[in-house]
Amino acid sequence: MKLMFKQRFFSWFDSYDIYDESGNTIYTVKGTPAWGHKLQIYDRYDNHLATLREHIISFLPCFDIQVNGQTIGTIRKEFTFFKPSFSVDCKGWRVEGSFFEWDYQIMSSTGKTVAVIEKQLFHFTDTYIIDVPDMEDSLLALMVVLAIDAVKCSQNN
User: Fold this and answer.
1) CB atoms < 10 A from the CB of 11, how many?
2) Rounded CA gap, 37 and 100, in Å?
3) Residues whose CB falls within 8 Å of the CB of residue 111, separated by 6 or more in sequence, listed in order
4) Is the pLDDT of residue 11 over 50?
5) Which chain regions cross the lipid bilayer (predicted)?
6) Cα(92)–Cα(82) distance, integer angstroms
7) Sequence-distant (≥ 6) Cβ neighbours of residue 156 within 8 angstroms
8) Are 106 and 92 in contact (CB under 8 A)?
9) How far apart (Å, rounded) are the C-alpha atoms in residues 127 and 139?
10) Rounded to whole angstroms, how far apart are CA atoms 58 and 49?
């Protein structure tokens, strides 16, 4: 299943809409005021599903993954020189990106591709295509994309 991740053009905080291939809204992401990034994820019926919260004091960017009010893991940027790399400790996933940090693959601990993320160029806002073969992985894959986007946004400011 392919999801389109699109940042809203007019918003005070980070806000995103995530669509399926038919253009239906699957998830909505709302940024909330906090030290660091704090993103709330909702389903199409406005039910809260998860929260992604950035650690304030950390050598490299790190985000807590909270589902149903419980922290289930973290997404952490790894120290690398040329290729950006992130780890997701709740499923043993790792994220490897291109030199320009625009395209990523999420890999399982067994080497299986969990998701492929591709940034769409020439849009007014950040827009990504997330290709997730297993829909059960879509929420966590979305949280990885949100964390990477937040890190890139912070580096550009």
Assistant:
1) 12
2) 23
3) none
4) no
5) none
6) 22
7) none
8) no
9) 17
10) 26
| Positive/negative CA dihedral, 88, 32, 59, 84 | positive
Higher pLDDT, 82 or 24: 24
Residue 46: its pLDDT value, please? 95
Q: Do 22 and 146 contact (CB within 8 A), yes or no?
A: no
| Mean predicted confidence (pLDDT) in 66-76 | 89
The string of DSSP letters for the chain reads -EEEEEE-SS-SS-EEEEE-TTS-EEEEEEE-SSSS-EEEEEETT--EEEEEEE-SS-SS-EEEEEETTEEEEEEEE---SSS-EEEETTTTEEEEE-TTS-EEEEE-TTS-EEEEEEEPSS-SS-EEEEE-SSGGGHHHHHHHHHHHHHHHHHHH-
Q: Which amino acid is present at 131?
A: D
pLDDT at 13: 58
pTM score, two decimals?
Answer: 0.84
How many other C-beta atoms are found inside a 10 Å radius of the C-beta of residue 116? 16
pLDDT tens digits, 41-68: 999 999 999 999 988 777 788 899 999 8
